[in-house]
């Protein structure tokens, strides 16, 4: 990558910001009645994977792929019923976490825009619970 290229990872503040965001995000997810049923297991391990994924997603080091292979997030989330309401709740938790850590401006807008696209792609269950 040329020296003048700036990644979204660099724009948001790199490792420290990603760690703060994940730390602010997951307690919200575990408290959210729409999302909590999807998150079982130790929060620390889930947070570690999310830090790795977001680092890579934002253009930082390929931590997630190095340990787990290609992210293939839609496939990895297929066992979980993700409704449009859950996608919206997930995004709301993320936005609240961004606000809490003071992530704002262009970098935040670009990051949130990309997450919004991912959230829509992850929907695999209709609001009434039916799955294709």
List the helices and strands and how they pair.
Layout lengths: L7 H5 L1 H18 L11 H15 L5 H6 L4 H5 L6 H18 L3 H18 L10
Helix pairs in contact: 2-3, 2-6, 6-7
Structure description:
With 132 residues, the chain is an all-alpha fold. The chain has a single domain, classed as Orthogonal Bundle (Globin-like), CATH 1.10.490. The protein has 7 helices and no strands. Helix 2 packs across helix 3 (43-57) and helix 2 packs across helix 6 (84-101). The radius of gyration is 15 Å and the shape is globular. The mean pLDDT is 94.
The gross shape turns out to be: globular
Q: What is the name of the CATH superfamily?
A: Globins
| Number of alpha- plus pi-helical segments | 7
The helix-strand sequence is HHHHHHH
